[in-house]
Design brief:
Blueprint: H1 2-26, E1 33-36, E2 40-47, H2 59-81, H3 87-110, E3 113-119, H4 124-127, E4 130-131, H5 133-151
Antiparallel strand pairs: 1-2, 2-3, 3-4
Length: 155
């Protein structure tokens, strides 16, 4: 199970980087292409900060925090990987590690992260946020991790 989860993390990371390369080469910045009716929008935006542009004015600190965050996720994954069960935690941490890894790679290499998916649903504030597959994997992975923690009996 652990090696499969690690492969899943690598697939998320690699897949997101492939999509980001495609978007960088083929999509105009701030363009708008409807993918699912007009509910999912393909666009291109370069985020120099963290979520919602946070810390864009302090890129070196953000890079350090990025390295620390990915390292912490890898450490947490290793702590759970050898345990029996804990499937939701393994899955969640794998998703988080894969998504964070693709964003960390771009942040460290280019100083910015490519975002390309916008959802045209919900509040105006939500509709204006642009994501990438790595972001979505981190969000979903967090939910799986929390669900797994809630369902795992304590000893």
């Amino acid at each position: 199970m652990a090696m499969g989860c690690l492969g899943f993390a690598a697939a998320i990371c690699g897949g997101d980087l492939i999509i980001k390369d495609y978007v960088k080469e083929n999509v105009a910045e701030r363009s708008r292409k409807n993918l699912v009716g007009n509910k999912v929008i393909l666009t291109k935006y370069f985020n120099k900060g963290a979520m919602l542009g946070a810390m864009a004015d302090n890129p070196e600190l953000l890079k350090g925090m990025t390295i620390f965050g990915v390292g912490s996720l890898a450490g947490a994954w290793m702590m759970v990987a050898g345990k029996r069960g804990h499937s939701l935690q393994k899955l969640g941490l794998s998703m988080m590690l894969g998504g964070a890894g693709s964003n960390a790679y771009e942040r460290l290499k280019y100083g910015k992260v490519t975002d390309y998916i916008r959802f045209n649903v919900g509040t105006e504030k939500f509709r204006n946020v642009i994501y990438n597959v790595g972001d979505l994997a981190v969000f979903a992975g967090t939910l799986f991790l929390l669900l797994g923690e809630g369902l795992t009996p304590t000893r």
